[in-house]
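User: Can you predict the 3D structure for this chain?
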Amino acid sequence: MGRSQRAPARPIRRSEPAGTLRPYPLLIFLAISFVLFGNTLGNGFVHDDKPLVLENRLIRDPSGLARIFASGYWTTRDHSIPELYRPLTIFSLALNRFVLGEGPFGFHLINVLLNGWVCWLVFLMAKALGGKGWVSWSAGLLFAVHPVHVEAVAPVVGRSELLAAGFGLVALLLHCHGRANGELAARRFIGAALCYFAALLSKESAIVIPLLAGLTDLALPQSQRPVSKKDALLPYCFFAIPAGLYLVLRVSVLGAVAASMLHPLDNPLVAMDRISALRTALVAGGRYLLLMVWPWHLSSDYAGTAIHPAAGWLDPPFLASLTILAVLLGAAALCWRRGRLAPYGVFFFFVAWLPISNLLFFIGTPLAERLLYLPSVGLAMAAGALFGLLSPRIGSGALALLLLAGSVRTIARNKVWHDDGSFAFATAANAPTSAKAQFNLGVFLEEHSDPGGAVTAYARAVELAPSWADAQFNLAGVLLRTSRLPESIQAYRRALALKPDESRIVQNLGYGLYQARHHEEAVELYQAYLKAHPNTPAVLNSLGANLFALGQLPQATQAYRSAVSLAPNEIGYRLNLAQALEATGEGEKAIAEYRKILNAEPENAMALRGLGMLLYRKGDVASASEV
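Assistant: Here is the predicted structure, written as C-alpha coordinates:
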Protein backbone atom coordinates (compact mmCIF):
# COMPACT_ATOMS: atom_id res chain seq x y z
CA MET A 1 0.00 0.00 0.00
CA GLY A 2 1.61 3.27 -1.14
CA ARG A 3 1.86 6.43 0.89
CA SER A 4 -0.91 8.93 0.51
CA GLN A 5 0.08 11.99 -1.41
CA ARG A 6 0.65 15.26 0.43
CA ALA A 7 -2.18 17.73 0.03
CA PRO A 8 -1.40 20.58 -2.34
CA ALA A 9 -0.61 23.99 -0.84
CA ARG A 10 -3.66 26.11 -0.22
CA PRO A 11 -3.89 28.82 -2.86
CA ILE A 12 -3.58 32.44 -1.77
CA ARG A 13 -6.92 34.18 -1.63
CA ARG A 14 -7.40 37.09 -3.95
CA SER A 15 -8.44 39.28 -1.08
CA GLU A 16 -4.96 38.78 0.48
CA PRO A 17 -2.38 39.01 -2.28
CA ALA A 18 1.17 37.88 -1.63
CA GLY A 19 3.18 40.47 0.25
CA THR A 20 0.16 42.01 1.98
CA LEU A 21 0.94 43.19 5.51
CA ARG A 22 -1.59 42.03 8.05
CA PRO A 23 -2.22 44.52 10.86
CA TYR A 24 -2.38 42.11 13.79
CA PRO A 25 1.42 41.56 14.20
CA LEU A 26 1.91 45.32 14.49
CA LEU A 27 -0.91 45.57 17.01
CA ILE A 28 0.55 42.70 19.01
CA PHE A 29 4.01 44.27 19.16
CA LEU A 30 2.53 47.65 20.10
CA ALA A 31 0.59 45.95 22.90
CA ILE A 32 3.74 44.17 24.08
CA SER A 33 5.61 47.47 24.10
CA PHE A 34 2.90 49.03 26.28
CA VAL A 35 2.98 46.07 28.67
CA LEU A 36 6.76 46.28 29.01
CA PHE A 37 7.17 50.05 29.05
CA GLY A 38 3.80 51.23 30.33
CA ASN A 39 5.38 52.09 33.68
CA THR A 40 7.60 54.69 31.93
CA LEU A 41 4.58 56.83 31.01
CA GLY A 42 4.60 58.32 34.50
CA ASN A 43 8.30 59.12 34.40
CA GLY A 44 9.56 62.68 34.37
CA PHE A 45 12.35 64.29 32.38
CA VAL A 46 15.55 62.78 33.74
CA HIS A 47 19.22 63.71 33.31
CA ASP A 48 19.96 64.33 29.59
CA ASP A 49 16.23 64.73 28.86
CA LYS A 50 16.40 68.17 30.47
CA PRO A 51 18.88 69.90 28.15
CA LEU A 52 17.38 68.07 25.17
CA VAL A 53 13.73 68.94 25.88
CA LEU A 54 13.23 71.42 28.72
CA GLU A 55 16.14 73.71 27.84
CA ASN A 56 15.99 73.30 24.07
CA ARG A 57 14.60 76.54 22.71
CA LEU A 58 14.36 75.13 19.18
CA ILE A 59 11.51 72.78 20.06
CA ARG A 60 9.55 75.47 21.92
CA ASP A 61 9.60 78.16 19.25
CA PRO A 62 7.49 77.27 16.16
CA SER A 63 9.21 80.01 14.17
CA GLY A 64 12.57 78.37 14.85
CA LEU A 65 11.78 74.94 13.43
CA ALA A 66 13.85 75.65 10.33
CA ARG A 67 16.83 76.35 12.59
CA ILE A 68 16.70 72.75 13.78
CA PHE A 69 18.36 71.60 10.56
CA ALA A 70 21.08 74.25 10.94
CA SER A 71 21.90 73.57 14.60
CA GLY A 72 23.81 71.03 16.63
CA TYR A 73 22.05 68.30 18.60
CA TRP A 74 22.78 69.72 22.08
CA THR A 75 21.23 73.15 21.52
CA THR A 76 20.31 74.41 24.99
CA ARG A 77 18.77 77.81 25.54
CA ASP A 78 20.42 80.00 22.86
CA HIS A 79 23.69 78.06 22.77
CA SER A 80 24.35 75.48 20.05
CA ILE A 81 27.09 72.99 20.86
CA PRO A 82 28.62 71.74 17.59
CA GLU A 83 29.12 68.12 18.61
CA LEU A 84 26.43 66.00 16.99
CA TYR A 85 23.96 66.48 14.13
CA ARG A 86 20.57 64.78 14.59
CA PRO A 87 17.99 67.27 13.31
CA LEU A 88 15.20 64.76 12.62
CA THR A 89 15.33 63.60 16.24
CA ILE A 90 14.99 67.21 17.43
CA PHE A 91 12.22 67.83 14.89
CA SER A 92 10.33 64.81 16.25
CA LEU A 93 10.60 66.29 19.76
CA ALA A 94 9.27 69.63 18.51
CA LEU A 95 6.35 67.88 16.78
CA ASN A 96 5.82 65.79 19.91
CA ARG A 97 5.52 68.95 22.02
CA PHE A 98 3.23 70.67 19.54
CA VAL A 99 0.78 67.75 19.32
CA LEU A 100 0.88 66.22 22.82
CA GLY A 101 1.99 69.12 24.98
CA GLU A 102 5.12 69.94 26.93
CA GLY A 103 4.66 67.39 29.74
CA PRO A 104 6.79 64.25 29.85
CA PHE A 105 3.85 61.87 29.28
CA GLY A 106 3.56 62.63 25.56
CA PHE A 107 7.28 62.18 24.96
CA HIS A 108 7.36 58.83 26.74
CA LEU A 109 4.21 57.72 24.92
CA ILE A 110 5.82 58.28 21.51
CA ASN A 111 8.94 56.38 22.62
CA VAL A 112 6.79 53.39 23.59
CA LEU A 113 4.96 53.49 20.25
CA LEU A 114 8.20 53.77 18.30
CA ASN A 115 9.64 50.80 20.16
CA GLY A 116 6.61 48.68 19.25
CA TRP A 117 7.04 49.75 15.63
CA VAL A 118 10.70 48.70 15.62
CA CYS A 119 9.87 45.31 17.18
CA TRP A 120 7.39 44.74 14.35
CA LEU A 121 10.06 45.68 11.80
CA VAL A 122 12.42 43.09 13.31
CA PHE A 123 9.68 40.50 12.85
CA LEU A 124 9.20 41.58 9.22
CA MET A 125 12.94 41.58 8.58
CA ALA A 126 13.31 38.00 9.81
CA LYS A 127 10.30 37.03 7.71
CA ALA A 128 11.71 38.71 4.58
CA LEU A 129 14.91 36.71 4.92
CA GLY A 130 13.11 33.37 4.96
CA GLY A 131 12.25 33.00 8.61
CA LYS A 132 9.06 30.99 8.92
CA GLY A 133 6.29 32.09 11.26
CA TRP A 134 7.82 30.53 14.38
CA VAL A 135 11.28 31.92 13.59
CA SER A 136 10.19 35.46 12.74
CA TRP A 137 7.92 35.66 15.79
CA SER A 138 10.74 34.43 18.02
CA ALA A 139 13.06 37.11 16.62
CA GLY A 140 10.56 39.91 17.15
CA LEU A 141 9.56 38.79 20.62
CA LEU A 142 13.13 38.29 21.84
CA PHE A 143 14.01 41.75 20.60
CA ALA A 144 10.92 43.20 22.29
CA VAL A 145 11.64 41.90 25.78
CA HIS A 146 15.40 42.35 25.94
CA PRO A 147 16.25 44.49 28.99
CA VAL A 148 19.25 46.11 27.30
CA HIS A 149 16.78 48.20 25.29
CA VAL A 150 15.43 50.03 28.33
CA GLU A 151 18.01 52.79 28.00
CA ALA A 152 16.77 53.48 24.46
CA VAL A 153 13.08 53.60 25.40
CA ALA A 154 12.65 54.78 29.01
CA PRO A 155 14.48 58.14 28.74
CA VAL A 156 13.28 60.62 26.12
CA VAL A 157 16.88 61.06 24.97
CA GLY A 158 16.72 57.52 23.53
CA ARG A 159 14.52 58.85 20.72
CA SER A 160 17.50 58.98 18.33
CA GLU A 161 18.11 55.23 18.72
CA LEU A 162 14.46 54.41 18.03
CA LEU A 163 14.20 56.58 14.93
CA ALA A 164 17.55 55.53 13.46
CA ALA A 165 16.79 51.83 13.93
CA GLY A 166 13.23 52.19 12.64
CA PHE A 167 14.05 54.09 9.49
CA GLY A 168 17.11 51.91 8.91
CA LEU A 169 15.07 48.71 9.07
CA VAL A 170 12.41 50.15 6.74
CA ALA A 171 15.22 50.96 4.30
CA LEU A 172 16.45 47.35 4.48
CA LEU A 173 12.94 45.97 4.02
CA LEU A 174 12.36 48.15 0.96
CA HIS A 175 15.72 46.98 -0.33
CA CYS A 176 14.59 43.35 0.07
CA HIS A 177 11.28 44.07 -1.67
CA GLY A 178 13.10 45.83 -4.49
CA ARG A 179 15.23 42.73 -5.08
CA ALA A 180 12.12 40.53 -5.02
CA ASN A 181 10.07 42.69 -7.40
CA GLY A 182 11.92 43.67 -10.54
CA GLU A 183 9.12 45.82 -11.92
CA LEU A 184 8.96 48.10 -8.88
CA ALA A 185 12.62 47.81 -7.95
CA ALA A 186 13.59 51.41 -8.72
CA ARG A 187 10.72 52.82 -6.64
CA ARG A 188 11.57 50.57 -3.71
CA PHE A 189 15.24 51.53 -3.90
CA ILE A 190 14.37 55.22 -3.95
CA GLY A 191 12.15 54.68 -0.93
CA ALA A 192 15.00 52.84 0.79
CA ALA A 193 17.36 55.75 0.08
CA LEU A 194 14.87 58.24 1.54
CA CYS A 195 14.47 56.13 4.68
CA TYR A 196 18.25 55.85 4.91
CA PHE A 197 18.46 59.66 4.82
CA ALA A 198 15.87 59.88 7.60
CA ALA A 199 17.87 57.36 9.66
CA LEU A 200 21.06 59.41 9.19
CA LEU A 201 19.28 62.61 10.24
CA SER A 202 18.14 60.76 13.36
CA LYS A 203 21.55 59.40 14.35
CA GLU A 204 24.93 59.14 12.64
CA SER A 205 25.43 55.44 13.46
CA ALA A 206 22.90 54.64 10.69
CA ILE A 207 25.72 55.28 8.22
CA VAL A 208 26.21 51.49 8.06
CA ILE A 209 22.79 50.78 6.48
CA PRO A 210 24.26 50.35 2.94
CA LEU A 211 26.72 47.79 4.33
CA LEU A 212 23.81 45.97 5.93
CA ALA A 213 22.00 46.12 2.59
CA GLY A 214 25.01 44.48 0.95
CA LEU A 215 24.97 41.79 3.61
CA THR A 216 21.25 41.36 2.98
CA ASP A 217 21.91 40.85 -0.74
CA LEU A 218 24.20 37.96 0.11
CA ALA A 219 21.56 36.39 2.35
CA LEU A 220 18.71 36.58 -0.19
CA PRO A 221 17.66 33.47 -2.13
CA GLN A 222 19.39 32.98 -5.48
CA SER A 223 16.16 33.80 -7.30
CA GLN A 224 16.08 37.31 -5.81
CA ARG A 225 19.68 38.25 -6.48
CA PRO A 226 20.44 40.72 -9.26
CA VAL A 227 21.39 39.27 -12.61
CA SER A 228 23.52 42.10 -13.98
CA LYS A 229 26.18 44.27 -12.42
CA LYS A 230 24.04 47.31 -13.18
CA ASP A 231 21.11 45.91 -11.23
CA ALA A 232 23.42 44.95 -8.38
CA LEU A 233 24.83 48.47 -8.05
CA LEU A 234 21.60 50.41 -8.61
CA PRO A 235 20.43 50.61 -4.95
CA TYR A 236 23.89 51.63 -3.78
CA CYS A 237 23.92 54.52 -6.22
CA PHE A 238 20.68 55.67 -4.59
CA PHE A 239 22.19 55.18 -1.11
CA ALA A 240 25.21 57.31 -2.08
CA ILE A 241 23.04 60.39 -2.68
CA PRO A 242 21.63 60.77 0.87
CA ALA A 243 24.99 59.78 2.38
CA GLY A 244 26.74 62.56 0.48
CA LEU A 245 24.01 65.09 1.25
CA TYR A 246 24.11 64.18 4.94
CA LEU A 247 27.88 64.65 5.10
CA VAL A 248 27.58 68.06 3.42
CA LEU A 249 24.92 69.16 5.90
CA ARG A 250 26.88 67.81 8.85
CA VAL A 251 30.10 69.57 7.88
CA SER A 252 28.28 72.84 7.13
CA VAL A 253 26.66 72.82 10.60
CA LEU A 254 29.41 71.30 12.76
CA GLY A 255 32.42 72.47 10.79
CA ALA A 256 33.78 68.92 10.51
CA VAL A 257 32.63 65.35 9.92
CA ALA A 258 33.37 64.52 13.55
CA ALA A 259 33.39 67.40 16.01
CA SER A 260 32.70 65.70 19.33
CA MET A 261 34.65 66.96 22.33
CA LEU A 262 35.72 63.77 24.07
CA HIS A 263 36.96 63.54 27.66
CA PRO A 264 38.53 60.61 29.53
CA LEU A 265 35.86 60.97 32.20
CA ASP A 266 33.30 59.92 29.59
CA ASN A 267 35.45 57.51 27.58
CA PRO A 268 38.68 56.37 29.25
CA LEU A 269 39.92 54.99 25.93
CA VAL A 270 40.80 58.48 24.68
CA ALA A 271 43.51 58.73 27.36
CA MET A 272 45.15 55.44 26.29
CA ASP A 273 47.67 54.85 23.54
CA ARG A 274 45.98 53.66 20.37
CA ILE A 275 46.98 49.97 20.71
CA SER A 276 45.77 49.73 24.31
CA ALA A 277 42.58 51.51 23.29
CA LEU A 278 41.98 48.97 20.49
CA ARG A 279 42.47 46.08 22.90
CA THR A 280 40.12 47.68 25.42
CA ALA A 281 37.54 48.33 22.69
CA LEU A 282 37.57 44.59 21.96
CA VAL A 283 37.06 43.92 25.67
CA ALA A 284 34.02 46.20 25.43
CA GLY A 285 32.86 44.17 22.42
CA GLY A 286 32.91 41.03 24.53
CA ARG A 287 31.01 42.90 27.23
CA TYR A 288 28.35 43.86 24.68
CA LEU A 289 27.85 40.18 23.85
CA LEU A 290 27.70 39.33 27.55
CA LEU A 291 24.96 41.92 28.00
CA MET A 292 23.00 40.34 25.18
CA VAL A 293 23.30 36.87 26.70
CA TRP A 294 23.05 37.76 30.41
CA PRO A 295 21.51 41.24 30.91
CA TRP A 296 21.41 41.09 34.67
CA HIS A 297 23.89 43.77 35.76
CA LEU A 298 22.89 46.84 33.76
CA SER A 299 24.18 50.38 34.09
CA SER A 300 23.69 53.73 32.41
CA ASP A 301 27.39 54.51 32.88
CA TYR A 302 30.38 52.38 31.88
CA ALA A 303 33.10 54.96 32.47
CA GLY A 304 35.88 54.54 35.01
CA THR A 305 37.13 50.96 35.13
CA ALA A 306 33.78 49.33 34.29
CA ILE A 307 35.47 48.16 31.09
CA HIS A 308 38.71 46.44 31.97
CA PRO A 309 41.66 48.38 30.48
CA ALA A 310 43.64 45.82 28.48
CA ALA A 311 47.28 46.66 29.10
CA GLY A 312 48.85 43.80 27.12
CA TRP A 313 48.21 41.17 24.47
CA LEU A 314 48.05 38.41 27.09
CA ASP A 315 45.57 40.25 29.28
CA PRO A 316 42.93 37.62 30.25
CA PRO A 317 39.77 39.72 29.63
CA PHE A 318 41.18 40.79 26.27
CA LEU A 319 41.97 37.20 25.26
CA ALA A 320 38.55 36.02 26.43
CA SER A 321 36.73 38.73 24.47
CA LEU A 322 38.85 38.22 21.38
CA THR A 323 38.20 34.48 21.51
CA ILE A 324 34.44 34.93 21.89
CA LEU A 325 34.23 37.44 19.07
CA ALA A 326 36.40 35.31 16.76
CA VAL A 327 34.50 32.09 17.53
CA LEU A 328 31.17 33.78 16.87
CA LEU A 329 32.35 35.19 13.55
CA GLY A 330 33.95 31.90 12.57
CA ALA A 331 30.84 29.91 13.42
CA ALA A 332 28.71 32.30 11.37
CA ALA A 333 31.03 31.92 8.38
CA LEU A 334 31.04 28.12 8.63
CA CYS A 335 27.26 27.93 8.90
CA TRP A 336 26.56 30.37 6.08
CA ARG A 337 25.78 27.68 3.49
CA ARG A 338 23.59 25.61 5.83
CA GLY A 339 21.15 28.34 6.74
CA ARG A 340 21.44 32.04 6.11
CA LEU A 341 19.33 33.74 8.78
CA ALA A 342 21.40 32.86 11.87
CA PRO A 343 24.78 33.72 10.28
CA TYR A 344 23.21 36.83 8.74
CA GLY A 345 22.09 37.95 12.19
CA VAL A 346 25.59 37.50 13.60
CA PHE A 347 27.19 39.45 10.74
CA PHE A 348 24.46 42.10 11.08
CA PHE A 349 25.47 42.57 14.72
CA PHE A 350 29.14 43.05 13.89
CA VAL A 351 28.49 45.48 11.04
CA ALA A 352 26.09 47.58 13.13
CA TRP A 353 28.51 47.42 16.07
CA LEU A 354 31.41 48.95 14.12
CA PRO A 355 30.36 52.63 14.45
CA ILE A 356 29.93 52.27 18.22
CA SER A 357 32.94 50.01 18.85
CA ASN A 358 35.70 52.64 19.28
CA LEU A 359 37.73 50.55 16.83
CA LEU A 360 37.46 52.91 13.85
CA PHE A 361 37.21 56.15 15.83
CA PHE A 362 36.48 57.21 19.39
CA ILE A 363 32.94 57.98 20.49
CA GLY A 364 31.61 59.54 23.69
CA THR A 365 31.57 56.34 25.76
CA PRO A 366 33.40 53.00 25.96
CA LEU A 367 30.05 51.19 26.08
CA ALA A 368 26.40 52.13 26.35
CA GLU A 369 23.38 49.87 26.44
CA ARG A 370 21.30 52.21 24.27
CA LEU A 371 23.87 51.80 21.48
CA LEU A 372 22.95 48.12 21.23
CA TYR A 373 19.46 48.90 19.97
CA LEU A 374 20.27 48.48 16.25
CA PRO A 375 23.05 45.83 16.56
CA SER A 376 20.81 43.66 18.73
CA VAL A 377 18.41 43.30 15.80
CA GLY A 378 20.92 40.91 14.25
CA LEU A 379 21.32 38.77 17.35
CA ALA A 380 17.54 38.64 17.81
CA MET A 381 17.19 37.25 14.28
CA ALA A 382 20.03 34.79 14.88
CA ALA A 383 18.38 33.61 18.11
CA GLY A 384 15.06 33.26 16.31
CA ALA A 385 16.70 31.08 13.68
CA LEU A 386 18.26 28.88 16.36
CA PHE A 387 14.89 28.44 18.05
CA GLY A 388 13.59 27.23 14.71
CA LEU A 389 15.99 24.29 14.92
CA LEU A 390 14.47 23.08 18.19
CA SER A 391 11.42 20.87 18.50
CA PRO A 392 8.20 22.86 18.99
CA ARG A 393 7.81 21.62 22.56
CA ILE A 394 11.35 22.41 23.71
CA GLY A 395 11.52 25.59 21.69
CA SER A 396 8.24 26.99 22.95
CA GLY A 397 9.14 26.20 26.56
CA ALA A 398 12.58 27.80 26.31
CA LEU A 399 11.17 30.84 24.51
CA ALA A 400 8.45 31.29 27.12
CA LEU A 401 11.04 31.26 29.93
CA LEU A 402 13.22 33.79 28.15
CA LEU A 403 10.28 36.05 27.40
CA LEU A 404 9.13 35.94 31.01
CA ALA A 405 12.59 36.61 32.42
CA GLY A 406 13.24 39.42 29.95
CA SER A 407 9.89 41.04 30.65
CA VAL A 408 10.39 41.02 34.42
CA ARG A 409 13.89 42.47 34.12
CA THR A 410 12.76 45.13 31.64
CA ILE A 411 9.83 46.32 33.76
CA ALA A 412 12.04 46.50 36.84
CA ARG A 413 14.80 48.34 34.98
CA ASN A 414 12.39 51.05 33.79
CA LYS A 415 12.14 52.40 37.33
CA VAL A 416 15.69 53.75 37.14
CA TRP A 417 14.43 56.55 34.87
CA HIS A 418 11.45 57.48 37.03
CA ASP A 419 13.03 60.68 38.37
CA ASP A 420 16.39 62.33 39.00
CA GLY A 421 16.79 60.72 42.40
CA SER A 422 16.21 57.14 41.25
CA PHE A 423 18.54 57.71 38.31
CA ALA A 424 21.32 59.30 40.39
CA PHE A 425 21.28 56.65 43.12
CA ALA A 426 21.00 53.71 40.71
CA THR A 427 23.78 54.96 38.44
CA ALA A 428 26.14 55.66 41.35
CA ALA A 429 25.47 52.16 42.71
CA ASN A 430 25.82 50.42 39.33
CA ALA A 431 28.92 52.40 38.30
CA PRO A 432 30.97 52.71 41.51
CA THR A 433 34.18 53.50 39.60
CA SER A 434 32.66 56.30 37.51
CA ALA A 435 33.59 59.73 38.82
CA LYS A 436 30.75 61.32 36.84
CA ALA A 437 28.17 58.99 38.37
CA GLN A 438 29.33 59.90 41.89
CA PHE A 439 29.50 63.59 40.95
CA ASN A 440 25.93 63.57 39.60
CA LEU A 441 24.75 61.93 42.81
CA GLY A 442 26.47 64.71 44.73
CA VAL A 443 24.71 67.35 42.63
CA PHE A 444 21.34 65.73 43.30
CA LEU A 445 21.96 65.47 47.04
CA GLU A 446 23.22 69.06 47.23
CA GLU A 447 20.14 70.33 45.38
CA HIS A 448 17.89 68.35 47.74
CA SER A 449 19.37 69.68 51.01
CA ASP A 450 21.57 66.73 51.96
CA PRO A 451 24.99 68.37 52.34
CA GLY A 452 26.44 65.41 54.25
CA GLY A 453 25.53 62.98 51.51
CA ALA A 454 26.75 65.45 48.88
CA VAL A 455 30.16 65.71 50.58
CA THR A 456 30.48 61.91 50.58
CA ALA A 457 29.54 61.65 46.90
CA TYR A 458 31.82 64.50 45.81
CA ALA A 459 34.69 63.10 47.87
CA ARG A 460 34.24 59.77 46.10
CA ALA A 461 34.32 61.57 42.74
CA VAL A 462 37.54 63.37 43.80
CA GLU A 463 39.07 60.07 44.85
CA LEU A 464 38.26 58.51 41.46
CA ALA A 465 39.30 61.56 39.41
CA PRO A 466 41.67 63.74 41.46
CA SER A 467 42.54 65.84 38.41
CA TRP A 468 38.90 66.81 37.78
CA ALA A 469 38.61 70.44 38.90
CA ASP A 470 34.79 70.49 38.90
CA ALA A 471 34.62 67.71 41.49
CA GLN A 472 37.10 69.55 43.73
CA PHE A 473 35.16 72.79 43.25
CA ASN A 474 31.77 71.32 44.14
CA LEU A 475 33.22 69.50 47.15
CA ALA A 476 34.77 72.75 48.36
CA GLY A 477 31.46 74.59 47.93
CA VAL A 478 29.50 72.16 50.10
CA LEU A 479 32.25 72.17 52.73
CA LEU A 480 32.16 75.97 52.75
CA ARG A 481 28.38 76.08 53.18
CA THR A 482 28.63 73.64 56.11
CA SER A 483 31.27 75.83 57.80
CA ARG A 484 34.11 73.35 57.31
CA LEU A 485 36.41 76.19 56.28
CA PRO A 486 39.87 74.55 56.46
CA GLU A 487 38.76 71.57 54.36
CA SER A 488 36.94 73.85 51.94
CA ILE A 489 39.99 76.07 51.43
CA GLN A 490 42.16 73.01 50.77
CA ALA A 491 39.69 71.71 48.16
CA TYR A 492 39.52 75.12 46.47
CA ARG A 493 43.33 75.26 46.37
CA ARG A 494 43.41 71.84 44.66
CA ALA A 495 40.83 73.01 42.14
CA LEU A 496 42.81 76.21 41.49
CA ALA A 497 45.99 74.21 40.90
CA LEU A 498 44.13 72.32 38.16
CA LYS A 499 42.53 75.43 36.62
CA PRO A 500 44.55 78.49 37.69
CA ASP A 501 42.81 80.85 35.26
CA GLU A 502 39.22 80.12 36.27
CA SER A 503 37.76 83.15 38.00
CA ARG A 504 34.96 81.31 39.84
CA ILE A 505 37.54 79.19 41.68
CA VAL A 506 39.60 82.26 42.55
CA GLN A 507 36.53 84.10 43.82
CA ASN A 508 35.26 81.21 45.93
CA LEU A 509 38.66 80.45 47.40
CA GLY A 510 39.00 84.13 48.26
CA TYR A 511 35.57 84.08 49.87
CA GLY A 512 36.58 81.08 51.96
CA LEU A 513 39.73 82.92 53.05
CA TYR A 514 37.61 85.98 53.87
CA GLN A 515 35.29 83.89 56.03
CA ALA A 516 38.32 82.39 57.77
CA ARG A 517 39.68 85.95 58.21
CA HIS A 518 42.78 85.17 56.21
CA HIS A 519 42.52 88.54 54.48
CA GLU A 520 46.21 88.86 53.61
CA GLU A 521 46.14 85.54 51.75
CA ALA A 522 42.96 86.58 49.94
CA VAL A 523 44.55 89.86 48.84
CA GLU A 524 47.64 88.04 47.52
CA LEU A 525 45.40 85.57 45.67
CA TYR A 526 43.32 88.28 44.01
CA GLN A 527 46.29 90.48 43.12
CA ALA A 528 48.09 87.56 41.49
CA TYR A 529 45.01 86.77 39.42
CA LEU A 530 44.48 90.40 38.41
CA LYS A 531 48.00 90.64 37.01
CA ALA A 532 46.92 88.21 34.28
CA HIS A 533 43.24 89.26 34.16
CA PRO A 534 43.05 92.93 35.16
CA ASN A 535 39.53 93.53 33.85
CA THR A 536 37.63 91.13 36.11
CA PRO A 537 35.12 93.21 38.10
CA ALA A 538 34.03 90.42 40.46
CA VAL A 539 37.60 89.78 41.55
CA LEU A 540 38.26 93.52 41.94
CA ASN A 541 35.18 93.81 44.15
CA SER A 542 36.33 90.88 46.30
CA LEU A 543 39.79 92.39 46.52
CA GLY A 544 38.19 95.60 47.80
CA ALA A 545 36.29 93.71 50.50
CA ASN A 546 39.45 92.14 51.88
CA LEU A 547 41.42 95.41 51.71
CA PHE A 548 38.54 97.08 53.56
CA ALA A 549 38.68 94.38 56.24
CA LEU A 550 42.42 95.03 56.63
CA GLY A 551 41.74 98.75 57.10
CA GLN A 552 43.46 99.69 53.83
CA LEU A 553 40.63 102.04 52.89
CA PRO A 554 42.20 104.02 50.01
CA GLN A 555 43.26 100.80 48.27
CA ALA A 556 39.83 99.27 48.89
CA THR A 557 38.14 102.34 47.43
CA GLN A 558 40.31 102.16 44.33
CA ALA A 559 39.50 98.48 43.84
CA TYR A 560 35.78 99.21 44.15
CA ARG A 561 36.08 102.12 41.69
CA SER A 562 37.70 99.80 39.16
CA ALA A 563 34.97 97.20 39.63
CA VAL A 564 32.21 99.82 39.16
CA SER A 565 33.87 101.25 36.06
CA LEU A 566 33.90 97.78 34.47
CA ALA A 567 30.37 96.86 35.61
CA PRO A 568 28.44 100.10 36.22
CA ASN A 569 25.07 98.35 36.46
CA GLU A 570 26.15 95.98 39.23
CA ILE A 571 24.42 97.41 42.30
CA GLY A 572 26.48 95.43 44.82
CA TYR A 573 29.75 96.87 43.56
CA ARG A 574 28.44 100.45 43.72
CA LEU A 575 27.06 99.90 47.22
CA ASN A 576 30.49 98.71 48.40
CA LEU A 577 32.08 101.77 46.78
CA ALA A 578 29.62 104.10 48.56
CA GLN A 579 30.39 102.51 51.92
CA ALA A 580 34.15 102.75 51.30
CA LEU A 581 33.86 106.41 50.32
CA GLU A 582 31.85 107.05 53.45
CA ALA A 583 34.51 105.32 55.55
CA THR A 584 37.27 107.45 54.02
CA GLY A 585 35.38 110.66 54.82
CA GLU A 586 34.31 111.40 51.25
CA GLY A 587 30.70 111.91 52.22
CA GLU A 588 29.51 113.87 49.20
CA LYS A 589 30.86 111.26 46.82
CA ALA A 590 29.29 108.53 48.91
CA ILE A 591 25.92 110.33 48.77
CA ALA A 592 26.23 110.57 44.99
CA GLU A 593 26.82 106.82 44.74
CA TYR A 594 23.88 106.04 47.03
CA ARG A 595 21.63 108.22 44.87
CA LYS A 596 22.76 106.43 41.71
CA ILE A 597 21.79 103.14 43.34
CA LEU A 598 18.36 104.48 44.32
CA ASN A 599 17.77 105.84 40.83
CA ALA A 600 18.17 102.27 39.56
CA GLU A 601 16.50 100.55 42.54
CA PRO A 602 14.34 102.98 44.56
CA GLU A 603 13.48 100.32 47.16
CA ASN A 604 17.05 99.14 47.83
CA ALA A 605 17.02 98.86 51.63
CA MET A 606 20.79 99.00 52.15
CA ALA A 607 21.15 102.11 49.99
CA LEU A 608 18.22 103.79 51.74
CA ARG A 609 19.64 103.02 55.15
CA GLY A 610 23.19 104.05 54.20
CA LEU A 611 22.08 107.31 52.62
CA GLY A 612 19.72 108.16 55.48
CA MET A 613 22.35 107.53 58.16
CA LEU A 614 24.97 109.51 56.24
CA LEU A 615 22.64 112.49 55.80
CA TYR A 616 21.70 112.33 59.48
CA ARG A 617 25.34 112.39 60.57
CA LYS A 618 25.96 115.36 58.28
CA GLY A 619 23.16 117.20 60.07
CA ASP A 620 20.68 117.14 57.20
CA VAL A 621 17.86 115.72 59.34
CA ALA A 622 15.09 116.74 56.95
CA SER A 623 16.63 114.96 53.97
CA ALA A 624 17.44 111.97 56.15
CA SER A 625 13.80 111.80 57.28
CA GLU A 626 12.60 111.93 53.68
CA VAL A 627 14.89 109.02 52.82
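DSSP finds 28 helices and two strands in the chain. Confidence is low (pLDDT under 50) at residues 1-18.
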